[in-house]
Amino acid sequence: MRKEASINAWKQLYDITLKLDKLEPWNDLGDTQLVTIQLKDREEPVFCSVMGKFSGERGIAVFDGMEGLGDFYMILGAEEGDLPAQYLMDEHSSLTCFWGSMMNVPDEQRSVIDELDIRFKTISDWIYFVSYKKGYKPYQLDEDEVALLTETYENLYMVLEAVKDGKLNPDIEQAEGIVRRYNSENDTWEMFVKEIPEAEKEFPSVMLEDQNLKDELKNKKQIDLEVILDFTYLPVMVEGEEEGERPKNPLLFMAYDNTDGGVITMDILEEGDDEISRTLGFFISFVQQNGRMKTIKARNPWIFGALEDICEYCSVDLVYDPVEIMDQVIEEVISQL
């Protein structure tokens, strides 16, 4: 059950963020110079990315744990891959603070700012927070998220002060970041420069265990058909069952006939469904009814995780492709919403 943060908790978060603002951290750290903070009583660290040194958008994004680090690198690699930038933003989880225009501040955040009677330097220097969570719309931070961000920023402030004072000098050319961690043995905090940790977003691979079903699919005739598969998040809100619950972000699965043209199927994942089961379910149903397609093209790693094994077994070519035509199809779908 979601629990909103108290106005006092919000005050603590804004107090430390305004202290960070005075340090202007984007002048000292690039967005890839991660600050790794191992907080007390947490198994995995949090990773802070300071934005603004190489772009106009100032902010601090906090990624929780190794899964969060995988999300960071997934977004970082957006320019090198073929997945749409908006899909990646909807696919990841982070707690992000922005410095930006007053016009971009969500209504819920504006209410907090008004109640705290906070004044910013200019109309372009408003500070606001956004919680990103895979499968849900960007939303207001809840009680636990405000507490986590406050504790993280208190430690980040100590790191940034040390950077300002010249005590920590990570070299961006050497892919160095900064670590701050609590040493329970001597009850002290340690800070040092270290090579930036790396991680990959994990996408599980599955194997169909029903051997009879696998043989059935393999023995179906092969047809001269190329199919494109893809996922996209739709720009609409699906309200939760309970009042105040975070709105969900509907995920659309699409199969496109790239031989003759036209959409084969297009449907929104339902509660309890996921990318792997939906993709595998489509493959099984289609092959049973129509035969084995010759080729499947895709760019989404969830699809490869679902189909690599069964496609190899059934002699169906599974090919990585930018599938640019799907961007047009998605655009048409969104325009009709």
TrEMBL record:
DUF6930 domain ranges (all copies): 216-332
Residue intervals of the DUF7309 domain: 10-179
A Pfam family matched in the record: DUF6930
UniProt xrefs under InterPro entries: DUF6930, DUF7309
Protein name: SseB protein N-terminal domain-containing protein
